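Entry 14. Structure prediction run on the chain below.
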Amino acid sequence: MDREREAQTRQWMHKLFKIIGITVAALIIGAAVFFVFKLQADAKAVLREAKNTRMALQSADIEMYAKGKSVFNPSNENGIENGVTGLVNQIYKPEGTYRITGYDAKRHEVTGMTYENGHFLVTYQLKGDAIYWDVDYRMNVYHYDDDDIVVR
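Output returned:
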């Protein structure tokens, strides 16, 4: 009788461990799938923001062209002429930061731009008639500061 009871207890424990293992595996897989879809949705939202910012820059460039200027100023750190940010904000208020990395003065067109929001970095390039958008997710793997100096 004791052996039968032990055998039943083992079978029951085996079933319980199987159920727990399947549940844990399903939770891990579900969390991974959720993270991938969330990351993809966030990337699309940031890409949409970057495209709207580029369109606002194009509109601001038309206004600057009427004044005999352009939106591009390579001497500024962000590559944007003074006062252009205000024009862009009237058209579209970007949540992230942007900078112009390339400009075609003959065509009065932004040919390169970066847009950064949170951990996402969007890069825009215009080469000929081809438009390239890249969305990268950046992770801070290591942060180095003065506290990390070992030898003084």
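Helices lie at 2-66, 84-91.
Filed with the rest of this week's runs.
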